Amino acid sequence: MNYQIEFRDVSVSYGKDVALRDINIQIPKNEIFGIIGPANAGKTTFLKAINRTLEFIHSAKTTGEVLFDGKNVKQIRNVYGLRRKVGVVFPLPVGLPMSIYENVAYAPRRSGIHDKQELEDIVVRCLQQAMLWDEVKDRLDMLGTKLSGGQQQRLTIARALSHSPDVLCLDEFSIAIDPVTTMKIEDVLVELKSEMTIILVTNLVQQARRLADQTAFFNKSELVEVGPTEKIFTSPDNQLTYDYVTGDFG
User: Fold this and answer.
1) Which CATH class is domain 3-245?
2) Which among 15, 55, 216, 218 is least buried, having the fewest CB atoms inside 10 angstroms?
């Protein structure tokens, strides 16, 4: 099996608080990998461990190995290159203080693409994939921060896709997006997995069931269970997993 991401005995703590404890997970390429669990289970920390954004948190300490394409991420010298290959969309949108067009074109331009037509094609494609193009195509010069919250979140998705990442990490991406648009984006994600690996953190367990090839259940900083999504939802090995996916958790 050709794994895109591997966690080997990974633990993460913030000072005395343990966020992840002895995590072992293997994520194959070109799959949608779902991560479910209650708040403070370690799901967001899991994503930050992949692209080394934990390094922005002074108190964070990591042990074990996180492998990306077989390489320990701590040993990857070009951390900016790593973060271009691992796009992350967090729950609350963070719009860059520039036009809608420049929000999407910024990363490709920084990577050396300067041909006007090529940049325009990237902007259109990414905005279409994020289900935002029809709403903004006549106002691409408008500040991205002037968009509504849901539109800014979709702009963030478009910006993450503009890197042409190998891995797309989505952390509660639909929290500010209406259900109809969410379903349309879900359809796009299913298509995109032929081009990239998608890691989907969601509190909407049925979203994981609809989209994920495999699903992992986290609770209290630990991996409780991981397996094929249908098994996790119909016949999990752990009673706690069953209680969570059926709504009897707590």
Assistant:
1) alpha beta
2) 15
